Amino acid sequence: MQYDIITEAEMTQHFGAKRFSKTAGDWLDQRIRAFAPDLILCCRYSGPHANRILMAGKKRMIPVVYHIDDDLLNVPRELGESKWRMHNSRERLQCVRQLLDQATMVYASTPGMYRRLKTLGTRSPIFCGGIYCAARVLRPATMGGVQRVGYMGTSSHMHDLQFVLPALEVYLDRNPRVIFELFGLSPVPEVLARFGDRVQIVPSVNNYGEFLKTLADRKWDIGLCPLAHTPFNAVKANTKWVEYTACGMATVATRGLVYDDCAAEGRGLLVHSEEWADGLQMLTDNPEIRYRMTVDAQTHLMLNYSENKLQQQVFNALGQAQKIHAEVAGKQASTPAVAFDDAGRILSA
C-alpha cells in the first residue's frame, strides 16, 4: 500500500501562524492532487482546512474517513491549561464537528467512543472495531522479586497519576528496595521527592517502535494504569494494558473504566481508589501470582490483540468506507469497490 502523510506540524513548519490561510489551503490541495489517493484518512485531526479535505474527497470521488480516539469536542481542563485552550479553540472545534458530520465514515477507537459519538449527534456513519492498539510480546513474563514499578504517560496524564500518589508513598515506604520510574512524565511529583534516586525519570521517546523497545528494556515488574473517573477518560482505549503486557509486566489498573475487560479473569489487577497500596503489596508479596497474571495477559494479547488482527480490522474499516461511499454515490452496481488485502496493497479492478 502506498501512502503519503501530511501533518499539521508540517503545515505549521511551512506557513506558521498563516496555516489557516488560503495559501496554505492551496498547498494542501496540491499535495492531495499530486499523490492522487484512493482514500483520505484523517487521524484525530483538528487542524486547518477540514473543508478542503472534504472537498478533495468529493472532487476525486473517494471516501474520507475520520479516525478519532478521544472526545475532542470535550477536552477537559485537567489535561493542562495549554492543551485545554488549544483543543477548545473555535477553529479546532469546528474542524472536529465538520469531519464528524461530513466524512464518509467515522472510525471510532472503542465501543465507549462509539457510544459517545452517538450521544454527540454524529451525522456520519460510525464504524467501531474490537481493538485499538496491538502489540507482540517483546519481553516474556519472568519470575522473581519486584525491583521496578513504573508509570508511563505525558504531562497531560498527571491528573490521573495524582490520585494514586498517596498509595505510592505508602508502598515505597514499605518496600525500600523498589525503584519507581516515570516514563515520559516530569518532573518528579513533589510528594515523591523525599525518596531521592529511588524515583527516576525516563525521557520520552517519540518513535513508537523505539518507545516500546525502551519500555521493555526498563524491565518493570509492575506497570500502573490509574485513570480518574471523568467523562473524558470513560471513552479512553486500553493502550497502557497492551503496552505493559507486551513488555512483560503485570498491570494494576483502575476498576470501572476501559481496563475492566482486558484485565479481567486475572489478566491484571483491577482496583478501586482506596485499594492501590494493598494491591501493589499483594503482587509484591506473591511473585507466583504476578508471574501467572503476566503469562495469562500475554496469552490474551497474542490471541486477541495481534498486529494481524488490527491490520485486518483496519482493512475491514476502509472497505466499509468504500462501500458506504459507493452506496451514497449511487454507483455500487457500476463501480467496483476498492478492497484491501492482508499484504496491505490496494486492489482495484
UniProtKB/TrEMBL annotation:
Q: Which UniProt key words apply to this protein?
A: Plasmid
Q: Which Gene3D superfamilies match?
A: Glycogen Phosphorylase B (3.40.50.2000)
Top-level division of the source organism's lineage? Bacteria
- Name of the protein described by the UniProt record: Glycosyltransferase
Q: What organism, scientifically named, is this protein from?
A: Parasedimentitalea marina
